[in-house]
Amino acid sequence: MSQNGIVLVASVSIFSDDKVLIIRENKPTAFNKWNFPGGHIASGEDILNSALREVKEETGFDVNLIGTTGVYNFISSSNDQVILFHFIGEVTGGSLNLEEDEITDSKWININDLATIENEDLRDSNVIKQITDNLLKKNFYSISVFNKQLTN
């Protein structure tokens, strides 16, 4: 979602054992770049639901969100102001089924190895490096800081 020139995004570090899933994007603004599964928050959509939806669309996995590394505010490589909500999740179902048009590859990688990927191979590398650093240091916060949207 874009509001007043600000793009709202939710992304997820999906863990299985000691490895995290990364995807290679095939988008005009991120061609052949590694990233965490995620995408735009739809207008009126709950942030947590957005994260779950984006993971399902891009990877085919159902996940349980177990924490967050925080909120990141930055100017993207396409010169948009982005507010990114980044979560930590565990696979609970589904199977790997990449979104064909936008995702070309995926791999499970040790978090230490993620830190060694060259900046030019990462989408918005400064943010991915910040998230990776928080994952390595286990700077995690409770998912309860995000209040689920109440519906009437």
Automatic annotation (TrEMBL):
Domain Nudix hydrolase: from-to ranges: 5-137
Which parts form a coiled-coil structure per UniProt? none
Keyword annotations for this protein?
Answer: Hydrolase
GO terms (molecular function) for this protein are: hydrolase activity
Q: Which family does it belong to?
A: Belongs to the Nudix hydrolase family.
Designated name of the protein? Nudix hydrolase domain-containing protein
Species source reads Virgibacillus oceani
